[in-house]
Amino acid sequence: TMRSHHSVLVFLVLAMCTVGGWCFPLEKTVSVTFPGDVLKNMTDMELAESYLKRFGYMNVQHRSGFQSMVSTSKALMRMQRQMGLEETGTLDKSTVAAMKAPRCGVPDIRSYQTFDGDLKWDHHDVTYRILNYSPDMEASLIDDAFARAFKVWSDVTPLTFTRLFDGTADIMVSFGKADHGDGYPFDGKDGLLAHAFPPGEGIQGDAHFDDDENWTLGKGAAVKTSFGNAEGALCHFPFSFEGKEYSTCTTEGRSDNLPWCATTADYGRDKKFGFCPSELLYTFDGNSNGKECVFPFVFLGETYEGCTTEGRSDGYRWCSTTDNFDKDKKYGFCPNRDTAVIGGNSEGEPCQFPFVFLGKKYDSCTSEGRGDGRLWCATTGDFDADTKWGFCPDRGYSLFLVAAHEFGHALGLDHSNIRDALMYPMYSYVEDFSLHEDDVEGIQYLYGSKTGPDPTPPGPTIPTPGPSDEPEPNTPTTTTTSPTTTHPVDPSQDACQINKFDAITEIDGDLHFFKDGQYWRLSSKTEGGLKGPFSMSERWPALPAVIDTAFEDLVTKKIYFFSGTRFWVYTGQSLLGPRSIDKLGLPSTVEKVEGALQRGKGKVLLFSGENYWRLDVKGQNIDKGYPRFTDIVFGGVPNDAHDVFHFKGHIYFCRDSFYWRMNSRRQVDRVGYVKYDILKCTDSSNFRY
Q1: Which of 597, 609, 487 is nearest to 552 (CA)?
Q2: Where does Ca(2+) 5 bind (predicted)?
Q3: 584-619 burial by CB neighbour count: b if 16+ within 10 A, else e?
Q4: Which pLDDT band, with edges at 50, 70 and 90, does 239 fall under?
Q5: Mean per-residue pLDDT for 473-477?
Q6: 276 annotated ligand binder
Q7: Do 643 and 503 touch, CB atoms closer than 8 A?
Q8: How far apart are CA 514 and CA 500, in angstroms?
Q9: Is 258 annotated as a binding residue?
């Protein structure tokens, strides 16, 4: 059965590793470890203990780290009952198998609520917005997968789903990797697949998908063609060309190195073809309206001949769309080719066919050199010389099925204990999907049943690029796909292009946003709006370009700025400092102060990591009894917040692009986006920048 809930919902697939392990193709070479190998090294009892604690069957006292509130045997019986297994209370084979099966990561038994909010939307026309795209699939395929996932629920309820292209929607959909800013990090391939928040304001209702996964339609790469003469049809694999069979896109028969495929089984007979995703044809997101890469290009004085991840911490491959990024600042993200490898040491790079391995030429993926039978390829023409490689693409995860499950959570549904239900915790691919009766009963309990013909939702429809004139096969048109950024701007000049500010604080009654030597002011008055950027060096010339936090003393109107282990005090144009923060009584272990809160006249709380100290501003010393743990007094906020400030009667804790708002009763009453909720950004800004 289903239960509505408030907790974040995370779609988890436990990594299943081969007996032979993950290692280099060559024997007796350095072993490479990937996420999931830890399961091989865990005993069944260690796995059970971890599983029972993680999913709520064994509730351990906060900070105790010792006794469980229930015995292992009772916890096992509770887990077995939930999963429909025989209730033995022992760690039998079927129980171990269930613990290793793909499943959702939210605890099955929750004794607390993370967020307050409604259990369902209070309106039937629910809006959604796709903030960015995965390089694994062409944008229109992703759009279609999400649209079909929403239709699963609108087919059986009065709900309609309208896509927005700017502003804030009820359900904000995005792709991200690892620590992507909401306090619930992804963990690489084959771990957490996605998660969604239940209905409500701010971040609630939003759905995030792990871009370390291989997103497909569930049966391997779904390659949508561009240009050619097939009108955007999917590649047909395998296909024959000049007497040879191809199971991937190829550049054979072309002199421009553009990958292509046939869209029927026999190109020689039907002459139907299209071009496969390639950075030579287009990019996505970024600020270049989909323009193709320009090679070579210059970045930080270095020349690049292909897509790169340099300069980024998220692993996304990008390129400049002019020959000099340093000068023009124009870029886009590179689409993954159908042969983009997984893992190895060349994540996201395409297989290079043919390639040489131990002196032999290979025209397709091979398991040679491996003891586990896994298919791999080189990402350069000569593995022997370059040793660049990765595993060949697998079937991947069905974006449609995962999205349908997550959107169920975003509408207010919890998990089902019916194995065939979409909302069952375990993920599995289904060829001919249909919504189970239990799913229908759950969603109709919240929103009622569908009556009459399908309503026509208001608002814009999903745009599809119009067909262009058919190009000659050997001279493809390089017109790009529809842009995802309608008004590209210099990110250094537009606050709405910044996802994480260096510091946010209230000065002179206005909220100030600091980033890399610039700042913006947001008036507390409704008609004031956002102004800037302004130069920090013009107003506070002694400050470094990057500050960690600041506060204005309510009594003296002095402004304290913190950067690393130093602080500065401005009184008008008069300056004191820089001085070391240990002069305030902070211990030498504090590397920086990340937030400051006024606590009445003359008292300020200084935050760093999971602790905070109370500063007596007049005495310039830390009060006795500190530090204290942040989560004891300010429960429900992230311990690693990098911006903490007061604004309009609320306390805000920020982490990456998100904020947690706390009311006067020290309750988190809202979680949302800094740029959309506080800055009121409405443009189609780049979510990854």
Answers
A1: 597
A2: 504, 550, 596, 644
A3: bbbeeebebbbbbbbeeeeebbbbbbebbbbbebee
A4: very high
A5: 39
A6: no
A7: yes
A8: 10
A9: no
510 marked as binding residue: no
Q: Tell me the per-residue pLDDT of 538-569, one tens digit each, with 9 for 90 and over.
A: 899 999 989 999 999 888 889 999 999 999 99
Which residue in 305, 329, 331 sits closest to 318, CA to CA?
331
> What distance in Å separates the CA atoms of residue 128 and residue 596, rounded to the nearest whole number?
35
Catalytic site residues?
Answer: 406
Task: Quote the CA–CA distance of 160 and 181 in Å, as a whole number.
Answer: 29
CATH number of 491-678: 2.110.10.10
Closest to 278 measured CA to CA, from 251, 252, 304: 251
| Geometric angle at alpha carbon 205, from 84 and 179, rounded to 5° | 85
> Which tens digit of pLDDT belongs to each residue from 199-226?
988 888 999 999 888 898 888 888 889 8
Write the class of the CATH domain 239-275. Answer: mainly beta
Instruction: Pick one of 2.40.50.140, 3.30.420.40, 3.30.565.10, 3.40.390.10 as the CATH number of 1-220+395-462.
Output: 3.40.390.10
CA 212 to chain centroid: 9
What CATH superfamily classification does 345-392 receive?
Answer: Fibronectin, type II, collagen-binding (2.10.10.10)
The per-residue b/e assignment along 640-677, b for 16 or more CB within 10 angstroms, e otherwise, is bbbbbbbbeeebbbbbbbbbbbbeeeeebbbbbbbbbb
